[in-house]
Amino acid sequence: MIFSLIIIIGIFLYINNNKLSINTIVYENHKIQTDFNGFKIIHLSDLHNKSFGKNQSKLITKINTLNPDIIVITGDIINSYKKDTNNAFVLLKELIKLYPIYYVPGNHEARRSDYQKLLLNIENLGIIVLNNTTCSININNSKINIYGLEYDFFNYKNHFSTDILKSVDEKYFNILLSHGPHYFDYYAKFKFDLIFSGHEHGGQFRIPFIKKGIYAPSEGLFPKFSEGIHKKHNSTLIVSRGLGNSRFPFRLFNLPEVLLIEFKTSKF
User: Fold this and answer.
1) How far apart are CA 58 and CA 53, in angstroms?
2) Buried-state track 13-24, b at ≥16 Cβ within 10 A, e below 16
3) 244: which of 20, 27, 48, 94 fits an S-S bond (Cβ 3.0–4.6 Å)?
4) Which of 235, 228, 222, 227 is nearest to 200 (CA)?
5) Residue range 133-151: average pLDDT?
6) Helix 57-66 × helix 86-95 angle, to 10°
7) Which domains does the chain have, with CATH numbers?
8) Confidence band (pLDDT; 50, 70, 90) for 214?
């Protein structure tokens, strides 16, 4: 009986940490122009060098079935507690063949001694690294701006004085990629329309049925921004539960998450 119980627990933990959850969000905003109606974004975060099948085949297959226009990655693709980055780069190398990718680093990248080299290697794949920089996506005469904040591991709040935040033009639709969701109040002050973050791992363990995360390093017990959609004024924050684990080795009632956001124009 003890042996059977151990097997059951092992299977349960395996499923909780390896079965991919696909969550779809239809996002409406009157600033989304007709050319971007139906535009699809995959949001990935906190891979922590985890593998989903040989050469990331399970994760890549899931993404391909969703057929996104772009992919945004909000940091921690690697695990700073381990030197190996192979699984992360296998995923990036395969996805960039098919989709434009926009990436910002997280705290696990920022604390590595080879941080700048790591970012350069990612950029050399053809991925757009947004480290306190911005870029635009243009379809016909329509435009979306994407901003990215670097994760300053030691003094993150300093980056809210960065010049890119002062350049936000409200007449366009503006997206911000930033690893830490716990600064949502700051992001909203700059009037970003849509913000993507990760970092909190869904609270690591989640309480069934009420879907509440238990703990996140940045917020402590029962974190406010462990997942999902949050709104303040005209800004919407979408938080990914992430894909992998860092120091703590497993999740509970908290499947690895792939987010699909589909744009819809709105009159209001």
Assistant:
1) 5
2) eeebbeebeebe
3) 48
4) 227
5) 93
6) 30
7) 2-265 (3.60.21.10)
8) very high
